[in-house]
């Protein structure tokens, strides 16, 4: 038989999604597992969104709708971009998608030709390199350093650019490191982006989940030059906890948006109409919803970090946003425990799941060996159990003989 697509065979399944599937399978089998694994809000979706979705269903709004999203939702998102982010994307420059994941994929599909290089700072969200490969591009990974809060340095960006570089992907707040770029840091990167004539894909899905006084900046707001070359991704899966309803969106300069809309018209037609009505219900409720969401994750972060203080041999950066800690376990590896050899983060995550009933995600999926990603989007009760298990599991490791 002839072989499957080289493109599809060249990628591996999402490790965050795979870990979540394993965790939920063990849970369904009645095992007492807890999760610091996939990044999924523990809060319920806002009532305003639920009510809007139910009303839309009752009113029979179940027919096909516009391929780029409901006109009233695109108009509301255009206002949101302008009021909250300082970026003027017209409604025609906005595409509503089935999750931010699909927005990222469609943006890449619409932009890349075979061989185009895409610069991705590591540690990165697991999906970026694989989505670039699926879209026919070539990921170019640029390492960042823990001592620099895992932020891309303009000089490292400049050095990575070749004649084939087309796009830079930035994610602030960052999954998995929690890094948030300041205006000044974005300005320094933007100088290289404009100078080298690159496009930018800015993934801002965690924009509302920031800690202490940290607030996010949208790089498309920096200058008309940046607005003309930046696509801004966002969605309803994180602050609005609509992750199962699969609703994201992307604003982009007109030509890029037009190409994305054409691609979506064939690939999906449009995202679920009911999810779009739910989003329309959530948006006006933002001012009431968002402060309590920040407080919830702030408490979870404070608890998680206080528990990490008690674990010998680990190191981390204070996350400024999102709901993850990217935990260095380098000084604990390689290790043995109960006759089991632990050589890297994959072995460690397996051991924690199988022996300690705790789901985490190995750092290697985010492009960095010697780390575990912990999601603290959880109730304080579950976090207590999870960190007890993490501490016990890590304390039980010994260096190999
Ligand atoms: N970007 C980042 C950085 C993420 O962590 C996620 C997590 N799901 C997404 C995009 C996609 O979110 P969704 O498809 O659920 O909207
Ligand atoms: N984004 C979340 C995570 O990183 C959910 C799973 C996924 O889409 O990768 O865990």
Question: Could you explain how this protein is built, in words?
Answer:
By secondary structure, the protein is an alpha/beta fold. Helix 5 crosses helix 6. The longest helix is centred in the last third of the chain and has 23 residues. The model has no long low-confidence stretch (mean pLDDT 97). The chain folds into 2 domains: 146 residues, Aspartate Aminotransferase, domain 1 (Alpha-Beta Complex), CATH 3.90.1150.10; 240 residues, Type I PLP-dependent aspartate aminotransferase-like (Major domain) (Aspartate Aminotransferase, domain 2, 3-Layer(aba) Sandwich), CATH 3.40.640. The protein has 14 helices and 14 strands. It has a 7-stranded mixed β-sheet, with helices on both faces. A 3-stranded antiparallel β-sheet has the order 9-14-13. Strands 1-12 form a two-stranded parallel ribbon. 4'-deoxy-4'-aminopyridoxal-5'-phosphate (PMP) binds next to helix 5.
Counting DSSP E segments of at least 2 residues, the number of strands comes to 14
What is the count of DSSP helices, taking H or I runs of 4+ residues?
Answer: 14
Query: Mean pLDDT across all residues, rounded?
Result: 97
Q: What proportion of the residues is helical, as a percent range?
A: 40-55%
Spans of at least 5 consecutive residues with low confidence = none
User: Shape from CA axes?
Assistant: globular
Strand portion: 5-15%
**CATH class categorisation of the largest domain:** Alpha Beta
Oligomerization state: single chain
CATH topology descriptor of the largest domain:
Aspartate Aminotransferase, domain 2
């Amino acid at each position: 038989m002839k072989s499957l697509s080289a493109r599809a065979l060249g990628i591996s399944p999402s490790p965050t999604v795979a870990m979540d599937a394993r965790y939920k399978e063990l849970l369904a089998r009645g095992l007492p597992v807890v999760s610091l694994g996939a990044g999924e809000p523990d809060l319920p979706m806002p009532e305003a969104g639920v009510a809007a979705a139910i009303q839309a269903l009752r009113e029979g709004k179940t027919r096909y709708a516009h391929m780029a999203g409901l006109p009233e939702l695109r108009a509301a998102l255009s206002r949101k971009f302008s009021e909250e982010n300082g970026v003027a994307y017209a409604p025609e420059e906005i595409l509503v998608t089935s999750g931010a994941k699909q927005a990222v994929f469609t943006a890449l599909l619409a932009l890349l030709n075979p061989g185009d290089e895409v610069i991705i700072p590591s540690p990165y969200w697991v999906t970026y390199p694989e989505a670039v490969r699926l879209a026919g591009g070539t990921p170019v990974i640029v390492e960042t350093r823990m001592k620099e809060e895992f932020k891309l340095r303009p000089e490292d960006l400049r050095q990575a650019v070749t004649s084939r570089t087309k796009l830079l992907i930035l994610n602030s707040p960052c999954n998995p490191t929690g890094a948030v770029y300041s205006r000044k840091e974005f300005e320094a990167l933007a100088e290289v982006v404009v100078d080298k004539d690159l496009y930018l894909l800015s993934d801002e899905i965690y924009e509302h989940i920031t800690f202490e006084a940290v607030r996010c900046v949208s790089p498309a707001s920096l200058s008309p030059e940046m607005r003309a070359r930046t696509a801004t991704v966002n969605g309803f899966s994180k602050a609005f906890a609509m992750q199962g309803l699969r609703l994201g969106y992307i604003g982009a300069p007109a030509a890029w948006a037009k190409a994305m809309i054409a691609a979506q018209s064939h690939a999906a037609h449009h995202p679920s109409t009911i999810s779009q009505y739910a989003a329309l219900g959530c948006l006006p409720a933002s001012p009431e919803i968002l402060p309590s969401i920040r407080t919830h994750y702030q408490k979870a972060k404070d608890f998680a970090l206080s528990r990490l203080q008690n674990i010998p041999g680990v190191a981390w950066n204070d996350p400024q946003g999102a709901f993850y800690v990217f935990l260095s376990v380098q000084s604990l590896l390689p290790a043995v425990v109960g006759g089991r050899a632990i050589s890297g983060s994959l072995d460690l995550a397996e051991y924690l799941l199988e022996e300690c009933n705790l789901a985490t995600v190995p750092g290697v999926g985010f492009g960095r060996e010697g780390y575990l990603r912990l999601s603290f989007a959880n109730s304080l009760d579950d976090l207590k159990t999870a960190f007890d298990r993490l501490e016990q599991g890590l304390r039980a490791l010994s260096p190999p003989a």
